[in-house]
Amino acid sequence: MVAERVELITRSWQVDSKAWQWTSEGGGQYELSPVDYNHRGTKITVFLKEDAKEFCSEWRLESIIKKYSNYLPFPVKLKDKTINQVKAIWTQSKSEVKADEYTEFYKQITHAQNGALHHLHFNVDAPIQYHALLYLPESIGNEVLYARESKDVALYAQKVLIQSGNTHLFPSYLRFIQGVVDSEDIPLNVSRESVQKNALIEKIKNSLTLRVLKELQFLADQNVEKYGKFWQQYGTLIKEGISADFKNKNRLMELLRFNSSVSENSSPEVSLKDYVGRMREEQKDIFYVTGGSREAILHNPNLEYFRKQSLEVLFMTDQIDDFMVADLREYEGKKLKNISQEDIDEIGESDISVPESSLSKEEKNDIIAFFEKELKDRVSGVSDSKRLVESPCSLVTPKDGMTAQMEKMMKMMDQKFKGEKRNMEVNMSHPIIQNLSEILQKDKKHPFLKDSVEQLYENSMLVEGLLEDPVQVLSRFQKFMESASAYELEKLS
Which pTM value belongs to this model? Predict the structure, then answer.
C-alpha cells in the first residue's frame, strides 16, 4: 500500500443530509464520525507514505488513470484536464464501429505498427454478461509460441481494468489472442489475486473459447486465403489444443491443415474432411508420415507404394505432430496409420507394376539371414518388403513404436537416449539385392557383401535423419567409388 492514512468524506444529495467522515490507517480498524461538509458527493484524500511520493507527480497519476480508468463513461480530471478520452468501443454495437476504429484500437493496446489479421467483436447477455473485442495478430513471436499461457488479453469490470494481462480467460493453445474482455457481472471489489479462482471467469473462458473456435471454422470455410495465413502462424498451437482440450477436440480436428502427397506445393491446405472425401471406397485408414520437411518425406522409401497406388498420404513436419496424432487417433471412425510402421493392412496384393523377383524362396531366406547376421543388434528383424517399389530397403517402426521424428526430439532432450530397434525391409526385386544374392551364392565371405549391407543400413538411417556417424558412410562410399571407377576403367581398356 502507498498510503499511511486514507480519509473519505461523503454527503448525500438529499436535502438536509449530514456529511460523514471515514478514516483508516489500514490496520483493520476505522473511525466514522459526522463532519461539517457543504458539498454533495464524495471526497477521498490519500496521505502518502514517504517512499511513495512519486504518486504526487502529474505524469504518474495520469498514467495510472489511463491504465485503469481510461474507458469510464464519465470524465476523470487531473486539475482541469480530462485524462480519459478514449471510447470503450467494445461495448458498442458492431454496426457503430468503423473498420479504421478497430485498427486504431488494436494499435493502441498492442503498440503494433500494422493492423491485425482478423478481429472478433461480440456481446453476450446470457447466461453470463460480457463484451469482447479480440484480435488475431498477423504474426507470432517466439515469446508467445513458447509461453505457457496468454498474457495479452485485458480483463475489465464495468470498464474498469482488473488485470492488464489475464492468464485465465483462454486455454493455453489460444495464447496468441489479444484484446479486451469486459463483464458487468464481475464485482469491482474483486481482488486481482482472486480472479483466477472466480467461477464466473471459468464460465467466460468456456464461452470465449467456443466463440473463437466457431470464428476460426467460419474463416476456414469462407475465407480460405486468410485462414491459410492464420494456419501458417498458429497451426502449431491449434495442434497443441488436440492434446490439451478434450472437450473441444472435435472442433479442433476440423481446423487442422496438412500438406500431402497430392499437394502441388508445400502449403498445408488439406483438411481431414478433404482427405476422407477423396478416400477410396475400400480404404479403411487415414495414412500419414512424419518427417523434417516435405522434401525429406518425398525421399522416404516407404512412400513409394502409396504413390504408385495413388493412395494419399498426409505429410506431418512439425515436431508436435507425433504428440498430436497420439491423441487424435481417428477421424470419423477412420484410424490414422503411419506408413513407416509395420502394421499397414492395406499393403499386400496390389495391381501396381513391380518387377518380379528372380530369387527363389531359399535365396531370399539366405539374403535375410545374411542381413540379420551383419546388422545383429541394430535391427529388430529383417523381412521381405511388400511396400518397396524403387528402393532396395528401408527401416520401418514397430507397431506403436517411436517415430524417427520423436526419437530425434528425445535425443535433443537427452543425449544418452537410445532409440528402439527398427525392422529392415528388403526389396527382393531390386537389382542391388539380386546382385548381392548372386555374390552370396558364390562367395559367402566376399568383403563387398558386408560393406554393402552396412551401406544400405546407413542409407536408410540417413533417410530417417537418424545417422549419427556420417564419417563411416563417407569412407565406405569412397571405397565403392574406387571399385566402380576401376571397373569402368577396365571396360575402357
Answer: 0.82
Q: Is the pLDDT of residue 27 over 90?
A: no
What CA–CA distances, in Å, run from 470 to 403, 407, 487? 21, 18, 26
Identity of the residue numbered 81: K
**CB within 8 A of 404, min separation 6: which ones?**
290, 291, 340, 397, 464, 465, 466
All three cell numbers of 444? 559367402
Instruction: Let me know: does 258 contact 297? Beta carbons within 8 Å.
Output: no
159 backbone φψ class: left, alpha, beta (φ>0; ψ -120 to 50): left
Q: Which residue segments constitute the domains of the chain, with CATH numbers given?
A: 3-82 (3.30.565.10), 89-252 (3.30.230.80), 256-351 (3.40.50.11260), 354-493 (1.20.120.790)
Amino acid making up residue 36 = D
CA distance 266 to 423: 30
Burial of 84 (0-12, 13-18, 19+ CB in 10 A): buried
Tell me the average pLDDT across 280-302. 92
Q: What is the CA angle 289-243-264, rounded to 5?
A: 35
So what's the pLDDT on residue 435?
Answer: 95
Contact in structure between 257 and 217 (CB atoms under 8 Å): no
Contact 8, 44 (CB under 8 A): yes
310: helix, strand or coil: coil
In sequence order, the 6+-apart residues with CB closer than 8 A to the CB of 392 are 426, 427, 430, 432, 433, 456
Highest mean pLDDT: which range of 55-64, 156-165, 374-383, 480-489: 374-383
Residue 5 CA to residue 34 CA, distance in Å, equals 18
Of the pLDDT bands very low, low, confident and very high (cuts 50, 70, 90), residue 120 is very high
The three three-digit cell numbers of residue 39, written as one number:
458539498
Strand order in the sheet with 334-338: 259-260, 314-316, 286-290, 334-338, 330-331
Residue 193's pLDDT band, with cuts at 50, 70 and 90, is low
Instruction: List C-alpha distances in Å: 110 to 105, 106, 135, 154, 182.
Output: 9, 6, 10, 11, 17
Query: Residue 235: pLDDT above 60?
Result: yes
pLDDT band per the 50, 70, 90 thresholds, residue 300: very high
Dist. CA 382–CA 444, nearest whole Å: 18
User: Rounded to whole angstroms, how far apart are CA atoms 402 and 396?
Assistant: 10
User: Cell numbers 476523470 correspond to what residue?
Assistant: 76
Mean pLDDT value of segment 134-141:
91
Pair 279, 315: CB distance under 8 Å? no
Q: Which of 482, 397, 384, 386 is nearest to 426 (CA)?
A: 384
